[in-house]
């Protein structure tokens, strides 16, 4: 991303929450290019404005079931360059898996009640807009249930732990601090994961994102 303001489309049916988020994001240097209260408004807004990232609630009018995340999957299929950050009170592991199934980054899923600071939310927006992944630990945990198989089986417990923290958006330095090990040790674990997953370095090296997506795809999500 360049130094320009991050362009955000905000889909949230609660007017009070939506207006508050517009104000907060504006104060944090983001440009809210449009807001939407329904899934059709979300789809139309993305088509018109092509934001860097769309913030999407799962349950939107008229039925308040899964309209928002269905629209997110459609956006993903039609305009994959638009990042998607699901921001909801609900965990829908199956839909999260569908969003991640395309094998590309630019996806986030955060739970409203677990975001402690606005700075965390804005950092996640930037990460998603840049093609990264930002997943709440609870979402990751639910997606992991159902049995592990394939390449994931080859990971050691520590490699598994490191990769799960990578899925939550932690850097090597942050992982080292959380696990109380050296950053060099984390680098070795990450390199081992890349090797076991068959991820070779490229000139546009996004192996962290690919490793996370492989992990989620093969872990019964």
Describe this structure in words.
The protein is of the alpha/beta class. It folds into two domains: 6-136, Response regulator (Rossmann fold), CATH 3.40.50.2300; 146-217, Arc Repressor Mutant, subunit A (Orthogonal Bundle), CATH 1.10.10. It is 49% helix and 14% strand. It has ten helices and six strands, in the order E-H-E-H-E-H-E-H-E-H-E-H-H-H-H-H. The protein has a six-stranded parallel beta sheet, sandwiched between helices. The longest helix is centred in the last third of the chain and has 14 residues, at 183-196. The protein is globular.
What is the terminal separation in angstroms? 30 Å
- Report the portion of residues in β strands: 5-15%
Q: What is the strand arrangement across the widest sheet? A: 2-1-3-4-5-6
CATH homologous superfamily assignment of the largest domain: Response regulator
CATH architecture of the largest domain: 3-Layer(aba) Sandwich
Query: Low-confidence runs (pLDDT<50, min 5 residues)?
Result: none
Order of helices and strands: EHEHEHEHEHEHHHHH
* Helicity range: 40-55%
Could you name the CATH class of the largest domain?
Alpha Beta
Query: What is the gyration radius calculated from CA atoms?
Result: 17 Å
State the CATH topology of the largest domain: Rossmann fold
- The tally of structural domains comes to 2
Count of extended strands: 6
Outline the biggest β-sheet: 6 strands, parallel
